[in-house]
Amino acid sequence: MMKIATLAATLLLTTAAGATTAQAANICFSFQDLETEFWVAGHKAITTTLTEMGHNVLERNANEDVNKQLEQIKDCIAQGVDGVIMIPQDGESANTIIRESQNSDVPIVVFNRPPADTGQGVIVVADNAGIAEDATDFVLQQALEGAADDAKLNAVVIVGDLGDSNAIARKQGFEAAVAKYPDRFNVIEVASEWDAATALANLEAAVTANPQIDVMFTSSDFLFPTIRSVLEPRGMWKKIGEEGHIPLAGLDGDATACQLIKDGFVDATGVQDLYFEAEASVNAIVQAVEAGETDPNEIIFDPGFTLTSANIGEREMDMWGCVLLSEGFLNN
Amino acid sequence: MTAIRTKRSLAARAADVFLSDYFIFYLCIAFIIVLAPFLPVLIAPANAVNIMSNMWPLLIVAIGQTFVLAIGGIDLSQGAVMAVTAVIGAMLITLAVDPVTFMRTPLWGLILTEQGGPLAGVTGGVLLALVMMLLAAVLIGLFNGASVALFDLPPFMVTLVTMMTLSAFALWLTQSGNIANLPDDFTRLGRGDLVSVYFGAKEESQLARRQVYSFVTFPMVIALIMAFLAHIILNRTVFGARVLAIGMNRKAAVISGIPVRRIVIAVFVLSAVCAMIGGLLYSARLEAGRPTLGGGTFLLDVIAASVIGGTSLFGGKAKIIWTFFGVLFYVLMSSALSAMNLSAFQIDMVKGGIILGAALLDVFRTWLKRERLQ
Predict the structure, then answer these.
(1) Number of domains chain A contains
(2) A295-304, B295-304, B337-346: lowest mean pLDDT where?
(3) Number of CB pairs < 8 Å for A and B?
(4) Which of A70, B4, B73, B374 lies 20 to 30 angstroms, CA to CA, from B112?
């Protein structure tokens, strides 16, 4: 909450200094759902910041239905909104919606999940491939440290919905890290489709077929509870340093991952800087509205970083999930 | 005496309106009149255009469902038919696919390659793909219809199984990927304008794009032609009379020599074809073939729109004009709820209440009609 308040205050000061005559804008904020901690925190950061800046926010939840999201944004445009911030359901629908918005002279910013064609709209996105590669690299090294030089290890990667370019980039980041150690890892791919139930079924099947798992990377932190529910009954959910610990890495930087790194069950997570992304999205739409730009096109990269069991002491409060954790998020 | 006669006459007139084919249309007008002062956006040209564009694909699918409801059945597989046929069509005509997403699909290398589908860039390829989609829909409809007509299986069970199987099949075919990069000839079907309009004075040489509204679109033309044909078939032909007769009393229909099995099969084929055409328009407007198309609460929307119009869930009572007004009311209501800034959950709860209200209204109207006849 402190972080969101600081973000809002900073933006308020910036806006007040830069444009004293700025008027309240009507911003449509369309999101595909609020299923994970990342989306919940992102939604809160964006809506709180816009509201505290004095703008009106029209929230639209598409319930994971792309057609509904398109219709809702068209409704927003019909209501005369000045700008749109969108978390799309997938990359393909994002392009269709961006075109719809820009063709109606309404600027649009895409938060976190990029469209298939990144040449349209303002896109605020994390360097998913780079972050995934760093996080995976950390756990691969952990796994190799405890293994014989000629041993081939089983590496599990839980991939997201491959219709989502973030999921593709994360998979590519994992593959890039594995490629650094030729012939050392046998990769077992588990599809999650960004759905906990699907991930559970597929991971159980994978672990049953391959009882020896040496390292694991999940494309999103929200699947850690699922991973735990598969590994714990099999006696494979161990802390760092305990016999049989599987080096585990994820990506997002949520509160659960922070707690699990502190508890020693998870080794690393790639962190998307949610507050930077929210600030960049809000700034971009407000600037476009104030400048009267109807179709700004730009990519704003969030470089992110990797929080590990080794650097958590110094970088803990740089991760949005740890900030939420310190505010008692998991207890609420 | 005069006062009593006037009072009775007013009650009778109210009952006439209540029992009229146009009752839901009157309700739509009343809805707009009541809400417009508080929600002026409801009557804004841009909103009217949105309501229409949201209405056409839903109307086409609801027409198919109306026929099935008319025989006393239900078709739960319409959403899955949309998904499978959309995926089949898109696979054939896509101009390019991302190998990272599609390399794991069973048709990679056979039908799908990095250069797209086998009909990509082929003259008449889109038309051929539409024929293949139609063929797939007909086959699915035949399966549903034959299972119900020949084996006396309950439509609910048959179409539930078809829905589950086809949804999984569509996901398996694409491994949950969306097939984009569809040719313009295809996507134009979903959003192409025939006539655009501008309301207001021409004050500048260049009109702002957001003030130019798509008015007559391809989906509108397709939906209106289909609605007109369906109206003729259901309410002006022997086939339609037989459909309603089966819904009223299937045993009596058999005894009176109606070819019940053939008609039941034809109705399920019609329903699947309508679902396919609706899915085609949704895919075209979303510019991708999606294995998840028609999922979520879509089927609720279709059945709700049909029932709100007045089509009976018990069969024997259906008109396409009722479905038309039912879809209009449903889309109008969704638009109004959205303009009220209600959350998606609240909107679904209100929709549920309205469907229940429509069902109760139908019971009351049926009772009132019976009372009048007596």
Answers:
(1) 2
(2) B337-346
(3) 93
(4) A70
The pLDDT value given to residue A13: 46
Residues A264 and A226 in one domain: yes
Task: Please answer yes or no on whether A96 and B285 come within 8 Å at the CB atom.
Answer: yes
B270 CB near a chain A CB, below 8 Å?
no
In a shared domain, residues A279 and A295: yes
Q: What is the pLDDT of residues A251-294, one digit of tens each?
A: 999 999 999 999 999 999 999 899 899 999 999 999 999 999 99
Q: Summarize pLDDT for A159-192 with one digit per residue, the tens.
A: 998 767 788 899 999 999 999 999 999 999 999 9
Between chains, do A116 and B290 touch, taking CB under 8 Å as contact? no
Q: What is the CATH number of the domain that holds A113?
A: 3.40.50.2300
Q: Which segments of A112-164 does DSSP mark as H helices, in order? A: 128-145
In a domain, A327, yes or no: no
Residues 103-162 of B with CB under 8 A from A: none
Q: Which amino acid is at B255?
A: I
Looking at residue A1, its pLDDT comes to: 47
On whether both A215 and A162 belong to a single domain, the answer is yes
Rounded (5°) CA angle B115-B120-B123: 150
B243 min Cα distance to partner chain A (Å) = 33
Indicate the pairing of strand B193-198 with strand B212-217. Answer: antiparallel
Domain of A258 in residue numbering reads as 128-271+310-316
In chain A, DSSP assigns E strands to: 26-31, 56-61, 83-87, 108-111, 122-126, 153-159, 185-191, 215-218, 248-252, 268-271, 298-302, 305-308
- DSSP output for A176-208: HHHHTSTTTEEEEEEE-TT-HHHHHHHHHHHHH
State yes or no: pLDDT of A19 exceeds 80: no
Domain residue ranges in chain B? 40-201+208-294
pTM equals 0.82
Asked whether residue A284 is assigned to any structural domain, the reply reads: yes
Spell out which residues of chain B touch residue A70, defining contact as CB-CB under 8 Å: 285-286
Q: How far apart are CA B213 and CA B195, in angstroms?
A: 9
Kindly state whether residues A201 and A185 are assigned to the same domain.
yes
Q: Is B354 touching A (CB cutoff 8 A)?
A: no
| Residue A280 domain-assigned (yes or no) | yes
Q: Based on the fold, state whether residues A12 and A140 are members of the same structural domain.
A: no
What pLDDT, on a 0 to 100 scale, did the predictor assign at position B19?
A: 82
| Same-domain check for residues A111 and A138 | no
Contacts of A105 in chain B (CB under 8 A): 208-210
